[in-house]
């Protein structure tokens, strides 16, 4: 099992993006998905950082893929999606409509925002050329095991959400703009004020969700720290690590240590709790009664 | 335009057909459909009778098999498609890619509609499903404006169906795991959202507190009626603000948009509410049948019949109006 870094869900400026991927080049991860997944309006403001980022990561020996948008509705977004396939990089589709633009015979990856819940769907995607699928974070370990087995038979590498705030929902409405009483078309890119999203708590002060433009994330950062052995045994090929704005390279290092056996699950969890925004962890989708559940909660 | 009405039970189906539904949609009483609530839905024998009843009166029956099959248990979903076919359903409403491929392969003559849960939100997605799997109608996700619906219809050759009344998903349907994050049960896997089994009410001081999976969704003064704690309609805090961050506790009412939707090329109007009472179904179906007939004649929507529906309810036209975003 190795590590894949997923597309950064947040809106960062060019400098932050450059610095992030420059640092990540030194991290012990096998592959990195780059590009804009959440909001098409953001991309023009930071896409200049992409070529350098891709070069730095490739030079460091990492496989680089480009994500599609997660929700494609506008003409310009369809055009952006078609252009992804012209770059020569592997495309990770996060909306099935991207398949419409897939050149004949080209391999592709499937991201966590495509609903791959069962063997039938996995088999169909494999027949179209999918070589790597990151499963939806919602799936329990029992489903993951079934799909990893099917993936092995079909020659598709199966990834599981290993770290980061969970992508729980995507919408037509922008919640960041709504919180600032602005219409989406005049958002003034206010999501850029919050490099790890904007936290939403319950009226009783429970840490609950995080708003990231049109996306809603969990406020807790998911971690498969305690499921590593079970996932290895199931034949899962990689853990998916989702970026955060600070200490991310250190987090990648911790996960690599956990996979190589030089760091215990407890030590990883302790390290993560000190590094994630808000300090809250969850692993309930894999093994708990609900997604927000943390198996080591007191 | 065709009016597609909810039938949570055999009795509701008869009510909807009698009140003027040209088509009804329903599901089997298990996790294969996205309204898997206790006391709802159809056994095979009930669906058999219901299809007879509807067909005798010229109405169609559409069977929703629109959850995402569980790994290792796909047979349950395959059987549901086979049974809908055998019983003479006019169409199945499907969301899962693998299940759609299965139905196209094994039941090629059974008409296939694409569920809103598949979230096909652009012409490329719709044409992908139409060309690859022979999908004949797409239920469009509630993230689109009327203009966007018109644009989609100009680039596709299959029918479109849109929601016009009832519960409103704020997120792209079929792509939301907020419910399972809080409760472990989700629309995609279990056919439920914010399930009653995980709701707890508590009286705390002057307030009634509604919690879902332990997370506080509302605090309502005791002398006011408390809305059901649907997660995305909850009241939360973010920084200095407190309010309905995602959506107010409103429902969708696009009755005024019926002429615009007709002009946008929409084939069918869908009413949400398989969990609602027969009295509600009767009232809503009658009002919409009147409205659809008025539209067909080129008359203005009958305000009086429709106004009665909205009474006492907060309503929105949702994403159909661009400003909503």
Explain what the structure shows.
The complex is a heterodimer of chains A (298) and B (325). With 298 residues, chain A is an alpha/beta fold. Chain A contains eleven helices and twelve strands. An eight-stranded parallel beta barrel of chain A has the order 1-2-3-4-5-6-7-11, surrounded by four helices. In chain A, helix 1 packs parallel to helix 3, helix 5 runs parallel beside helix 6 and helix 9 packs antiparallel against helix 10. The longest helix of chain A is centred in the middle third of the chain and has 14 residues. Chain A starts with a strand and ends in an 11-residue tail after the last helix. The model of chain A has no long low-confidence stretch (mean pLDDT 97). In chain B, a hairpin with a 2-residue loop joins strand 11 and strand 12. In chain B, the strands form three sheets. An eight-stranded parallel barrel of chain B has the order 1-2-3-4-5-6-7-14, surrounded by six helices. Chain B is globular and about 60 Å long. Chain B is built from eleven helices and 15 strands. The mean pLDDT of chain B is 92. Chain B is α/β, with parallel strands linked by helices and 325 residues long. Classes of the chains: A alpha/beta (298), B alpha/beta (325). The interface between A and B is large, with 72 and 69 residues. Chain B: InterPro entries: Peptidase_U32, RNA/ubiquinone_mod_enzymes, UbiU. Chain B: Required for O(2)-independent ubiquinone (coenzyme Q) biosynthesis. Together with UbiV, is essential for the C6-hydroxylation reaction in the oxygen-independent ubiquinone biosynthesis pathway. Chain B: Its cofactor is [4Fe-4S] cluster. Chain B: Keywords: 4Fe-4S, Iron, Iron-sulfur, Metal-binding, Ubiquinone biosynthesis. Chain B: This is Ubiquinone biosynthesis protein UbiU. Chain A: Forms a heterodimer with UbiU.
């Amino acid at each position: 099992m190795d590590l894949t870094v997923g597309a950064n869900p947040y809106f960062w400026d060019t400098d932050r993006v450059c610095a992030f991927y420059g640092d990540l080049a030194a991290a012990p991860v096998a592959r990195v998905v780059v590009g804009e997944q959440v909001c098409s309006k953001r991309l023009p403001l930071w896409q200049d950082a992409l070529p350098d980022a891709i070069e730095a990561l490739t030079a460091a020996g990492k496989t680089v893929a480009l994500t599609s948008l997660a929700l494609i509705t506008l003409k310009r977004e369809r055009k952006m999606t078609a252009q992804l396939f012209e770059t020569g990089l592997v495309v990770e589709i996060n909306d099935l409509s991207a398949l419409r633009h897939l050149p004949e015979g080209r391999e592709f990856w499937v991201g966590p925002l495509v609903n791959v819940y069962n063997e039938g769907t996995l088999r169909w995607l494999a027949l179209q050329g999918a070589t790597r699928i990151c499963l939806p974070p919602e799936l329990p370990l029992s489903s993951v095991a079934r799909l990893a087995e099917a993936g092995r038979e079909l020659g598709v590498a199966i990834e599981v959400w290993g770290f980061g705030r969970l992508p729980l929902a995507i919408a037509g409405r922008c919640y960041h703009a709504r919180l600032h009483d602005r219409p989406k078309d005049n958002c003034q890119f206010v999501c850029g004020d919050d490099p790890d999203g904007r936290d939403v708590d319950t009226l009783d002060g429970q840490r609950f969700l995080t708003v990231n433009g049109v996306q809603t994330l969990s406020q807790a950062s998911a971690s498969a720290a305690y499921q590593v052995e079970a996932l290895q045994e199931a034949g899962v090929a990689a853990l998916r690590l989702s970026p955060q704005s600070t200490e991310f390279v250190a987090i990648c290092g911790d996960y690599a240590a956990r996979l190589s056996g030089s760091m215990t699950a407890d030590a990883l969890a302790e390290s993560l709790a000190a590094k994630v925004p808000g300090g809250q962890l969850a692993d309930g989708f894999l093994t708990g009664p609900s997604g927000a559940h943390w198996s080591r909660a007191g | 335009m065709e009016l597609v009405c909810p039938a949570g039970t055999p009795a509701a189906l008869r009510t909807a057909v009698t009140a003027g539904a040209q088509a009804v949609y329903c599901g089997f009483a298990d996790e294969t459909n996205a309204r898997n609530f206790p006391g709802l839905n159809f056994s095979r024998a009930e669906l058999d009778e219901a299809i007879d009843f509807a067909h005798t009166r010229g109405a169609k029956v559409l069977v929703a098999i629109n959850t995402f099959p569980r790994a290792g248990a796909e047979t349950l979903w395959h059987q549901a498609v086979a049974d809908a076919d055998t019983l003479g359903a006019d169409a199945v409403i499907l969301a899962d890619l693998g299940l759609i491929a299965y139905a196209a392969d094994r039941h090629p003559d059974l008409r296939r509609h694409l569920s809103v849960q598949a979230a096909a939100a652009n012409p490329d997605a719709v044409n992908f499903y139409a060309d690859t799997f022979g999908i004949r109608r797409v239920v469009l996700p509630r993230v689109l404006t009327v203009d966007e619906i018109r644009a989609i219809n100009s680039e596709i050759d299959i029918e479109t169906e849109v929601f016009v009344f009832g519960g409103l998903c704020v997120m792209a349907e079929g792509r939301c795991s907020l419910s399972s994050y809080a409760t472990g049960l989700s629309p995609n896997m279990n056919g439920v959202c914010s399930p009653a089994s995980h709701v707890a009410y508590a009286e705390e001081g002057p307030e009634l507190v509604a919690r879902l999976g332990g997370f506080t969704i509302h605090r309502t003064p005791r002398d006011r009626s408390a809305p059901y704690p649907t997660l995305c309609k909850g009241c939360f805090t973010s920084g200095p603000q407190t309010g309905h961050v995602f959506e107010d506790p409103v429902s969708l009412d696009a009755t005024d948009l019926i002429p615009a939707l007709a002009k946008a090329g929409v084939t069918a109007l869908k009413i949400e509410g398989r969990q609602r009472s027969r009295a509600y179904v009767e009232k809503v179906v009658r009002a919409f049948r009147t409205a659809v007939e008025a539209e067909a004649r080129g008359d203005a929507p009958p305000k009086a019949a429709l106004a009665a529906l909205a009474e006492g309810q907060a309503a929105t036209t949702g994403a159909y109006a661009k400003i909503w975003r």
